[in-house]
Amino acid sequence: MMVTEFQKKLEYVTGYRVNRQKYANEVLDNPELFPELIRLCFEVSDKNASKAFWVLEFVCYQKLEWLEDHLDFFCSNIKNLKEERAIRPAAKICQLLVHSHFKKKEIQLSEKHLEEITESSFDWLINDIKVAPKAYSMRTLYILGQHYDWIHPELQTIITKDFSNHSAAYKAVAKEVLKKIK
Predict the structure, then answer these.
(1) Sorting pLDDT into bands at 50, 70 and 90, what band is 2?
(2) Nearest to 80 by CA among 141, 124, 48
């Protein structure tokens, strides 16, 4: 497959906020790049797929609605992510989507989208990955649990079982979520 100009630019994306925002601004200024960005996020063989996710996260902060036409693709593929550098922004985007669907009533997620987000969020919560995706997943599952009565008891069990083995950051979010559940 031909490497595009935008794909080459992903080489220069770094973890710095200002840098991620710079590349997100390029997509925001050129919406025709958005479908390519989504595709690149899930090109797991591409070493820059996680960088594409970093950019996507920043685009979604401003234009989450752009994801609407790509929800089937996004939601059905998040479960295949293996690299933590991609999982963290994916978990954050899931939180934004669920918040938008239930709290703001802006983005309309189908039952299938909600199922796929729920499944991935639980996977990220129970698997051995860093705290940020776990924190986003807890918050996402909390919101989902306000609409699906089986989620809060499951979430509560997982959080309390793992509580003592985690960092202060995990415990802070866990306490916040447990307090809301009770």
Answers:
(1) low
(2) 124
Question: pLDDT tens digits for 69-98?
Answer: 999 999 999 999 999 999 999 999 999 999
- Tokens representing 154 are 């499951």
C-alpha closest to that of 127 among 97, 72, 83: 83
Helices 111-126 and 151-162 cross at an angle (nearest 10°) of 10
| Residue 44, φ and ψ in degrees, nearest 5 | -60, -20
Look up residue 71 and give its DSSP letter: H
Helix, strand and coil in the chain, % to nearest 5:
80, 0, 20
Structure tokens at 117: 């987000």
Residue that has been written with the tokens 């100009």 in this structure: 5
Report the predicted TM-score, pTM, of the whole model to 2 decimal places. Answer: 0.94
